[in-house]
Amino acid sequence: MGRILCVVNQKGGVGKTTTAVNLSAALAMSGKRALLLDMDPQCNATGSLGLEPTDGHAMIRSQPISDQIVETKMENLSMIRGSRTLQDVDRLAAAGESETGIVRDHLDSIIDTYDFVLIDCPPSVGPLTQTALSGSTEVLMPIQCEYFAMEGLTQLIQTIKKVIVATDGRLTFGGILLTMYDPYLELTREVDDEVRDFFGDIVFDCVVPRDVSLCEAPSHGKTVFEYAPRSRGAFAYTQLCMEVLERD
């Protein structure tokens, strides 16, 4: 059975989409069958792979989800594109029992086809994120190395705990990833120590550095591995991929 990783943080600009896109690419490059699901109405994950948003989100259609998956330029990497259509966003965000059930049922119908499904969520702890969490098996939280890194995490963790209870333990904590890491800044080291002291082994050993390649790659519709394969960012996500595989 495949693993469904929900990449989530209540704050924007912490490397959430960057992580979803490049981790899924790294997993695909390792030979794993990976699927990237864009649940963020901004559709940045979709654009990062050079694709256009869809007019109707696949996760709320009655048709088989397998018929709506598109292949990317990378071998082993498929995608379910995001939608900016307000009606789709409202239906997904409603997170009533019927909608949550649809999303989970769709994911369960393809879980044996892929080794990994990564879900890019909006920057919030709202109903849309909760819907994504309800269909996932693991949570991956990117945390930016800044002063307010821990702010709001209590609310996010409480939301995750509620979903864990509601899904009878289907959802687990997959890991916390430190992003935009600058070892020369004292603040970065302080946040690193604080996060690791508080969360312990759940924090990944690898960190994602500040790297302009990670910022530039999406504007070219490419992953960092396609855009700058020798960059620090590419190396970091390769390391993350190895740790994710080791935690299986």
UniProtKB/TrEMBL annotation:
GO molecular function: hydrolase activity
The AAA domain, residue ranges: 3-169
Entry coiled-coil feature ranges: none
One family name in Pfam for this protein: AAA_31
Class of enzymatic activity (EC top level): hydrolase
InterPro entries: AAA_dom, DNA_Partitioning_ATPase, P-loop_NTPase
EC number: 3.6.-.-
CDD domains referenced in this protein's UniProt entry, alphabetically: ParAB_family
Record's keyword terms, sorted: Hydrolase
PANTHER family assigned to the protein according to its UniProt record, in alphabetical order: P-LOOP CONTAINING NUCLEOSIDE TRIPHOSPHATE HYDROLASE, PARA FAMILY PROTEIN CT_582
Protein name: Soj-like protein
